[in-house]
Amino acid sequence: MSGTYLGMPAFPKAAEDAVRNVTLRGNLRHATHTIRDKRAKAVAELEDWDRLRAAGKDIKDRTLRHLDRYLLQLEEAVTAAGGTVHWAADAEEANRIVTYLVKAAVGSDIEQREVVKVKSMATQEIGLNEALEAEGIAAYETDLAELIVQLGDDRPSHILVPAIHRNRGEIRDIFEEKMGSWGRAAPAGLTDNPAELAEAARVHLREKFLRAKVGVSGANFMVAETGTLVVVESEGNGRMCLTLPETLISVVGIEKVVPTWQDLEVFLQTLPRSSTAERMNPYTSMWTGTTDGDGPQTFHLVLLDNGRTDTLADEVGRQALRCIRCSACLNVCPVYERAGGHAYGSVYPGPIGAILSPQLRGTGSEVDASLPYASSLCGACYDVCPVAIDIPEVLVHLRERVVEGGEVTRNGERVTIKPAKGHAVERAAMRAARWALDHPDALRAGQRLASRTRRIHPKRLPGPGHAWSDTRTLPEVPAESFRDWWQRTRGGAQ
Length: 494
Ligand code: SF4
What we know:
Distance between the termini: 56 Å
Number of strands: 12
InterPro entries: 4Fe4S_Fe-S-bd, 4Fe4S_Fe_S_CS, FTHF_cligase-like_sf, Helical_ferredxn, LUD_dom, LutB/LldF, LutB_C, NagB/RpiA_transferase-like
Shape: globular
CATH class of the domain at 46-304: Alpha Beta
Structural class: alpha/beta
CATH topology of the domain at 46-304: Rossmann fold
Bound molecules: iron/sulfur cluster
Keywords: 4Fe-4S, Electron transport, Iron, Iron-sulfur, Metal-binding, Repeat, Transport
Pfam family, one: LUD_dom
Protein name: Lactate utilization protein B
């Protein structure tokens, strides 16, 4: 997976910088609270929400258990409908395939070396825009928030609302300064009125929709039984990219397959309510291969692995592959609300990013090793997840991997991960606790000694200042241990 932001510090440092930004905190708080409140109301409308959630979880688990079978079924159906399927083991291979396909589609026409894009996490994950740019191909984002991010030379900070960290005034400034160098300039006298900003984006994008020969998308779902791809969105830009260009290239993670249309029905109810708090998405685009005289005449599907098979091999961690990218977990997370998405150093921020990125990329880097700790383990993410991913369970599992090291599968091979540095004191403390709990007599003697000397115990953890221990006092040792109290009052009776 190549979606690491180069030069990004590990989460604690990045978050420390982010929480000092008062404007960012204000923007995030306002946006996440607004979305989460709306989501709660939309979900409460459905009496069978819990059953839908359980069904979504079961469908995803069943699909992941037989992923090989469903992917082959999908390939067969897409091919029969006139599409071409490509398999990409990693980001590099996916980028190479897409670049080749774009060049083949536009030929020698240098003016046409451009693509219009539907918002897609998978293409961000593989760094497709940068790979195309290196080959002289311009990739234009057409989702409004992605456009803001692209024009502002910025990075997305939320799965659903990539420019959540920007307010209206900042967006107006970006449009005024940058639109002209990417195409049609913003109108003179543009204000921060949302309708005016949307109109400026609409006019700017329209000429790109009408001109581009190639569209690039991801997909929310792929239906194996018919080879149908599904994109849900709210702005209509996706519909333009999926229907106007002559060639359509879709880059989709292999976990996005669902076996049947009946299975799809569950997610078309849970996804919009969990993400945008809508009963259904304003635009649901579905296409199956190609159709003569209607829409793109050439369709390529690039199936992306990039660490997913390795994730599937982990019995605890594989549940992250159920994710339907609704972003509900981000909007309820107290850590995300304060630190924002950039602090996670990955295209997948928030609670899902904290468990997905270290699995797709491995825990070898400082950034990835820090992500499983980017959580208070409060469990709010699990409560709202429409496919019941137990994010706290996976976080604890990954913390264990970071501390203990061990063996994992990478590109089909077993590799050893070294234990993380910097946890020596914790490891020593745990070893000491294990020994004490294994030796009851020594534990009892230690407790009595601690009780007798309790008046001279320090009130804080000794050692150099630490952000956590500096603000907390150590609990007082009681005058009598529970065991001694039990012995004294009950005479050892069970
Ligand atoms: S982990 Fe669950 S709540 Fe978070 S984005 Fe994925 S599906 Fe949505």
